[in-house]
Write a structure and sequence with these properties.
Elements: H1 2-10, H2 15-31, E1 33-36, E2 40-46, E3 51-52, E4 62-65, E5 71-76, E6 80-89, E7 95-106, H3 111-117, H4 122-139, H5 144-148, H6 152-168, E8 172-183, H7 186-236, H8 239-254, E9 262-263, E10 274-275
Antiparallel strand pairs: 1-4, 2-3, 2-5, 6-7, 7-8, 9-10
Helix pairs in contact: 4-6
Length: about 280
């Protein structure tokens, strides 16, 4: 009798059911909530309602109540980056090692379609194959020399454009493709460097020739200008002008305190004859 009273004190009538219901409620509540962190979005899967929800916006950041029989798949929707190191062939069949990276993010408005069609492994299923395919297509148009020197920026832009065409149809937003390194076979690289050096030396030599030619032309023009000026001056100097200039110079000399000037008649040219010493 005492034992029964003790049991009654420990477990009031209906107490076990209350505890059980409380536990069930806590578990159900925890299974019915989803917290989406910053930079993420959720795709709702309705077990009894048609599967993946594609005709409604994805679940945004914050706290959400979800029926316990449904499920939420969480995706990173911020910009992400992947690195690719691949072997590709140039236009003449030489093997080139290309290192590139891509900046991308899922299209938030189509996140449900991305999950339904591609799944959570969409990076390896879609993005990586797209970049590799575009890189092989683009690099195959150029020679190793173009890849090594002048066409790096052009190649990068073309890979971006071709990759974006593919990913836009796969519900993925491509922001940028960066070609980080192009590695050629050592022998090809050395040959290209020698050729570039020779071309640079040739350009420098041509520049010196052009500079020398221009300098020679300048001197010819200056000499011709002086000759033409002297010719014009000679033509303008008549006997009368020369005689007047001579008389003017003689008068200035006669006024000099350091000179004794004697003028005797005139010379054959009509100019005065000047005798004297200092």
């Amino acid at each position: 009798m005492n034992n029964n009273r003790q049991l009654d004190l420990k477990f009031p009538k209906g107490g076990f059911m209350v505890v059980l219901l409380a536990v069930i409620t806590i578990i159900a509540f925890s299974k019915s909530t989803e917290t989406i962190k910053s930079g993420q979005a959720g795709v709702l899967y309705k077990t009894f309602g048609g599967g993946v929800v594609t005709d409604e916006p994805s679940l945004g950041e914050g706290f959400h109540i979800v029926a316990p029989w449904n499920k939420v798949f969480v995706y990173e929707v911020r910009q992400q980056e992947i690195f690719e190191k691949m072997q590709v062939l140039s236009s003449n069949g030489l093997e080139i090692q290309l290192e590139a990276s891509a900046w991308f993010q899922p299209q938030s408005e189509n996140l449900g379609l991305l999950h339904k069609e591609k799944g959570e492994n969409y990076i390896s299923r879609v993005i990586q194959p797209a970049i590799r395919s575009a890189a092989r297509s683009v690099v195959g148009r150029y020679t190793p020399e173009q890849l090594y020197s002048s066409k790096r920026d052009v190649i990068q832009e073309e890979i971006f454009v071709e990759t974006k065409k593919i990913l836009d149809k796969q519900h993925i937003q491509l922001n940028e493709v960066l070609v980080r390194d192009v590695t050629l076979p050592a022998t090809i690289k050395s040959a290209i460097e020698r050729k570039l050096k020779q071309e640079q030396e040739s350009l420098e030599y041509e520049f010196r020739l052009v500079t020398a030619q221009k300098e020679a032309e300048k001197q010819i023009i200056e000499a011709k200008g002086k000759a033409d000026a002297n010719k014009i001056l000679s033509a303008s100097l008549t006997d009368k002008i020369l005689r007047d200039k001579g008389i003017e110079a003689t008068m200035k000399l006669s006024e000099s305190p350091n000179s004794k000037v004697v003028i005797i008649g005139s010379g054959n040219s009509g100019m005065p004859i000047i005798l004297g010493n200092q």
